[in-house]
């Protein structure tokens, strides 16, 4: 099928399960990458995305097309990530996890240390931990806006729709998030 997401969602709301399955195939990986960058754990990100699709499926009859499906999808994922972070803070305070991190629009996959120079792999892992720690110290809305803008490459208007904020608020969140990341990075001791 080469149908738009919105048309697939409309068909799914009418009971077409193949249309809903196509939506899950199209957006699963993107959703996992988004949640992984916020939550810092691949398995947890997978669980959150699965929960997001279950929520969407359970609410298919009530779906009202107000914009693009992916903005609806990211808003649901954002809310689920917030819920998970709040729950995790209550259960496991101060636990940091390693994940795929990128800032400044440059994405870097952290390769399997067995396939590369061991020192290089260790340095990459250390940088990933530091960056994940910095992101985890940002307020939730700043972290979500930074992830969507810097890591996923979304435009301000797309972030506005995905998070449910006005464009001016999104710009302020990104500005403050960048400033806070710079401030926090200055506090991190240099490694040899």
Quick synopsis:
By secondary structure, the protein is mainly alpha-helical. It has eight helices and two strands, in the order H-H-H-H-E-E-H-H-H-H.
**Major beta sheet, strand line-up:** 1-2
Radius of gyration: 18 Å
Residues in helices, as a percent range? 55-70%
Structural class: mainly alpha
Give the full name of the CATH homologous superfamily of the largest domain: RNA polymerase sigma factor, region 2, helix turn helix motif
The 3D shape can be described as globular
Q: What about the largest sheet?
A: 2 strands, antiparallel
Kindly report the CATH topology of the largest domain. Answer: Rna Polymerase Sigma Factor, Chain: A
**Contiguous uncertain segments of 5+ residues:** 90-116
- Tell how many strands the DSSP assignment holds: 2
Topology:
Layout: H1 5-13, H2 17-39, H3 42-58, H4 69-91, E1 102-103, E2 106-107, H5 118-136, H6 140-151, H7 156-163, H8 167-187
Antiparallel strand pairs: 1-2
Helix pairs in contact: 1-2, 2-3, 2-4, 3-4, 4-7, 6-8, 7-8
Overview of the structural elements:
This protein is globular. 69% of the residues lie in helices and 2% in strands. A hairpin with a 2-residue loop joins strand 1 (102-103) and strand 2 (106-107). Strands 1-2 form a two-stranded antiparallel ribbon. The model is unreliable at 90-116 (pLDDT under 50). It has two domains: 1-95, Orthogonal Bundle (Rna Polymerase Sigma Factor, Chain: A), CATH 1.10.1740; 99-192, Winged helix-like DNA-binding domain superfamily/Winged helix DNA-binding domain (Arc Repressor Mutant, subunit A, Orthogonal Bundle), CATH 1.10.10.10. The protein is mainly alpha-helical and 192 residues long.
